[in-house]
Amino acid sequence: MSKDQPLRVGIIGAGANTRLQHLPGFQKIPGVEVTVLCNRTEASGRKVADEFGVSRVETDWRAVVDDPEVDAICIGTWPYMHAEVTIAALEAGKHVLTEARMARDLAEAEAMLQAAEEHSGLVAQIVPAPFSLNHDATIVRLLTELGPLREVSVVHRCGMWTQPETPTNWRQDFEFSGKNTQTLGILYETVQRWLGPTEDPAWLLADAELFCSQRPNSQGEMTPVGIPDAITVLGRYAGGAKFSFAISSVDSAAPRLEVRLNAEKGSLRYDLAAQKLYRADHGGPGVFGQADASGEVLVEPDPGTTPGWQVEADFVKSIRDGMPVTLTSFEDGLRYMRFTELVWESWNNGSKVMAWGEA
User: Fold this and answer.
1) 3-class DSSP state for residue 132?
2) Which residues are CB-neighbours of 336 under 8 A, at least 6 positions away?
């Protein structure tokens, strides 16, 4: 597509991230126009459209996908619609940017990748995990310097679901979220970006618990909860490093959201909430700079490696200039969906899972 040719974007799903990032992101790019917005109700769609100056509103997503005046589709819905809308959009000749998580399960993700491969002339992109965009390059460099990786530890603990009377939301509804379990997928994607394209699990073992099987919905009616409140995953990467994920939403102590990477020569700790990176040398505190009492040194991002949020701009560059999709490709989305599927299989069957489901 020529840079001089207008790019017309249709939005399907006007959730929080669509309003916060996608709509303003597209609208600040020269030559890009959001021409139509589709939401679950006309009233909700019109409210967002009026706020962002979008003239046309639809309530049926097919009207957007089938519109010959739309060049690209941005899917801002919950995961339950991602596969169906993505495949239909690609078959209609539209470029696709879809929210994460990629799909509800591995089968849907595989179907999406197949459709993208069959329409390789179109751009297919997933919204990336946003926690580490300004530190990714620095972490990759440091891991190379620190030698072979020994251990990855990921922790997310909070008190969101400690009280049984707390209303449920779509993330706890299997119909809408599928096998995506709390923040497991987005955290795995973050680490996956640092370790490279070949470092997948050789095996894993997962255990989870659903402490509250029913919660009130937004109307106050009791409804089943399908997603665990706490999950622990242990395993080994193909390269030999061990990994652990510990995620809980029933912890009333101070919240924690961090990744620790222990290598031969030192350790890295990334605080995803504060978006700060720390380094500690195995030889003792202070070796690489002025350390605090813990022996850690705050590491600033390498110069020129802090792109921040460029999702919409990258999508447009891929369409106009043929720039390869890196954040995040459907191939990388499939990798984290495979992990999610393995975890679901392991904790439901109570057994260790080897190499993508092979016993």
Assistant:
1) coil
2) 101, 102, 185, 188, 189, 192
How far does CA 56 lie from the centroid of its chain?
Answer: 29
Domains along the chain with CATH numbers:
7-127+310-327 (3.40.50.720), 136-307 (3.30.360.10)
CA-nearest of 69, 71, 67, 74 to 52 is 74
- Report pTM: 0.94
pLDDT in tens, the chain (359 residues): 556 689 999 999 999 999 999 999 999 999 999 999 999 999 999 999 999 999 999 999 999 999 999 999 999 999 999 999 999 999 999 999 999 999 999 999 999 999 999 999 999 999 999 999 999 999 999 999 999 999 999 999 999 999 999 999 999 999 999 999 999 999 999 999 999 988 999 999 999 999 999 999 888 899 999 999 999 999 999 999 999 999 999 999 999 999 999 999 999 999 999 999 999 998 765 444 555 546 899 999 999 999 999 999 999 999 999 999 999 999 999 999 999 999 999 999 999 999 754 54
Instruction: Annotate 257-273 with DSSP letters as a single string.
Output: EEEEEEESSEEEEEETT
Which of 325, 359, 328 has the alpha carbon at shortest distance from 345? 359
Query: C-alpha angle with apex 133: 74 to 255, nearest 5 degrees?
Result: 100
Q: Which helix (H) or strand (E) holds 82?
A: helix 82-91
Give phi and psi for 10, each to the nearest 5: -110, 135
Q: How far apart are CA 45 and CA 200, in angstroms?
A: 40
**Cβ–Cβ < 8 Å for 228, 208:** yes
Closest to 185 in 3D by CA, of 85, 276, 104, 80 = 104
Helix (H) / strand (E) element for 347: namely: helix 330-349
Spatial CA neighbour of 27 closest among 8, 40, 3:
8
Of 128, 124, 157, 174, the closest CA to residue 17 belongs to: 128
Task: Check if the beta carbon of residue 288 is closer than 8 Å to that of residue 279.
Answer: yes
Q: What is d(CA 255, CA 59) in angstroms, rounded to the nearest whole number?
A: 39
Count the residues in the chain. Answer: 359
